[in-house]
Records
---
Amino acid sequence: MTNEYRYKLQNSSKKNRCPECNNKTFVRYIDTNTGDLLPEQYGRCDRESKCSYFVAPPAEIQETKCLFVPFDKLNDYSNKAFQIKADGKIFFLPKAMTFEVIETGCYVSEWYLNNTDKPPHFLDNDYRFYLRGERIDKPRYLNNKDRPLRHTAACFPVDVFKQTLQGYDKNVFIQNLLSHISFPFEIKDIETVISQYYLGTVCNGYRAGAITFPFIDKYEKIRAVQVKQFDSTNHTWKIR
Ligand SMILES: [Zn+2]
């Protein structure tokens, strides 16, 4: 079965949070066979000029659930279809929807059986899964509660965070540490701390020169960035 059109971008009026830029401009993929959304890393960000995150679902997740269709007889009718005789009647099954033929019946796409007029009798409780034409023991993604979803909590925009990782010559707190008269810190020690904790600088605006402390979770997602403004005596500013 070709899966070219099986996964579609969801109606674009439904916007989700983009895994890259965190804006609500993200359109996810839907499995048209089941109505399920695909794992949330698959989709397209509509902020094309600024973000352009676009990850199409790979072949590995194109799994198909098939149900057993018992038959009395099967004919190889054409290069497109099988003809079966079941319950005394004749049915045609597209080969693209028929994933395996055994002696007493065949396994046919559940989606096809549920979306075709007058399908042959099929068994709901006898099913198999296929991935790129090969039978697999159990589904890895579809109809599977254990599908690998990305962490979903709100995050700080990565592009804004990246802009903080500069301007250390204007960073009042860092410069205070370097110029501390009684006990100056070594540049290499300060650089180590900056890179370990991703300390940054607010470069523009009324808080220019402030230091930033990102909170990074175990998924390496930036959950928040704290901004602290110090004066030349290395005391924090009062909240204005
Ligand atoms: Zn985006």
---
Amino acid sequence: MAQTKIQLLISGLIFLVVFLGAFSAYMFAQNQALASNVSALSGKVDQLSAGGSGESKAATRTFSIILVMFGMEEEEARHRWISSSIMVKRGDTVVLEITNTDDDAVHGFGIAEYGINEMIQPGETVTIKFVADKAGFFIFYCTRPGCAPDHAQQVGQLIVL
Ligand SMILES: [Cu+2]
């Protein structure tokens, strides 16, 4: 009886060791895949701006970001940043030309980690220039609470590789 329990315990332990081994191998492979995806993306950003040279040099990258309104009534209107996702390389100089197409409300544009907080009047375009010296994933958002009922959904992302 005692022997059966010990046998059961040992086979349980063996199973656990094999399972953990397989799991770590799987996680390691996932990590490698992610790392190679990031470096492939990084190369893509270079190609896009340098016309296919693939060289890794800091560049100036300009983007248009337009706050677009969907829906007729202000109460139901949905505001979205288009483009809502921009990607650069660390060290790049980023120029954002941001337009507020909402005729009725002032909106703002902020990226907390980069100390950016600009007010944009209805119909106005504001240009922001900064060096993307921090790598990571940053949310950009409207900085004018109360601009519209969907204020909290006025978000996008800056990815710095
Ligand atoms: Cu807003």
